[in-house]
Amino acid sequence: MQNKPLHVAIFGAKGYPYVYGGYDTMVKELCERLVKKNVRVTVYCHRSLFKERPPQVNGIDLVYMPAIESKSFTQLTHSFFCMIHACFSSADVIFVVNSGNGPFGLISRMMRKPTAINVDGLEWLRPKWKGIGGKYFYWASKMATKFYDQLINDSDEMQRVYQELFQAPSKVIAYGSNPGLQADPALIQKWQLEKEGYYLIVGRLIPDNNADLIIEGFTKSASKRKLVVVGDVPYKDEFAERLKNIPDDRLLFTGYVKDQQELAALYRNCYAYFHGHEYGGTNPAMLKALGYDCAILALDTPFNQEMLQQGKHGWYFQKDTEDIVAVVEKAESSPEAMLQLRQTSRQGLTQKYDWDHVTEQYLEVFRQLAGR
């Protein structure tokens, strides 16, 4: 029994190998590397998202849990069932993502299962969680600091926020990046695009990603380039529909682009990448932009300042339409500066954003927790 491998159970994302959002990507990259290091990994999947349900993929054990399907309660009910199941499993450590799952740490504490939680960004400030939703996320994040054995933030700025708001110490482990995926430039012809003939936005069409602000500023500019918007929301939504119906021939909405080669080609061949995300820590779309040699135009937030090393790897704009008009016009008139940003952006991916380094840090946390 001495050689029994460490067993880690993971839930809070959509499952494996489902990859679209940041947490889904992290689970995929982390689990595949942990398995190679002789760690037994169990990932809990949203049953309704998987038509086929193999018990194991790429050496990762999969458990398909149900949920009460609704816009507000799907994730919470799924996580509740997962936590109960994981507490009665042979897992040595339970790793949870998403601060909304904070209260469920009470269950693992009562069952004496060691736990870690990655709490992500400032969920309670996001416009989509107005009112009771925002209050819940604030409370849930606070509960995460009390019930889980190890709190993990993905940026120095988020660590500061949790220390200031909740007096809770945490460990910083960033998201990783896979720089340098080459992509056939011909793939962008699917959308009748030309190399450097467009600006790019990648992200869900929700208010806190500020696509509305960027689109409004861009349409007021004199740019002859297109603005390509990659992403959507998986439900009928007034905000997203309003954006898609803005009458301007320069706007192109691709919806979700799940083919990673096509997505890489869109990043790699854009004139500049717009990043309007407001409330996160380390953002996966920004990491992709750095890794795919993009010139980056980012909303001026402490998180984006940290990721772009205080302007070394991108330009900033304020949350103001006229400021976006100004940054577009500056970019249009500065092709040499845009080229310089593209040529140096990958240098922004320091060791902290390397998936192998990220995995080693998580493994250290899991071993410490299992050894308690």
Automatic annotation (TrEMBL):
Occurrences of domain DUF1972 (ranges): 116-177
Cross-referenced Pfam families: DUF1972, Glycos_transf_1
SUPFAM superfamilies, per the entry: UDP-Glycosyltransferase/glycogen phosphorylase (SSF53756)
Natural source organism: Echinicola vietnamensis (strain DSM 17526 / LMG 23754 / KMM 6221)
InterPro entries, alphabetized: DUF1972, Glyco_trans_1
Keywords on record: Transferase
UniProt keyword NAD, yes or no: no
Keyword match Mitochondrion: no
Domain of life: Bacteria
PANTHER family: GLYCOSYLTRANSFERASE WBBK-RELATED
Official protein name in the record: Glycosyltransferase
Glycosyl transferase family domain segment(s): 188-347
BP GO terms, sorted: lipopolysaccharide biosynthetic process
An MF annotation (GO) of this entry: glycosyltransferase activity
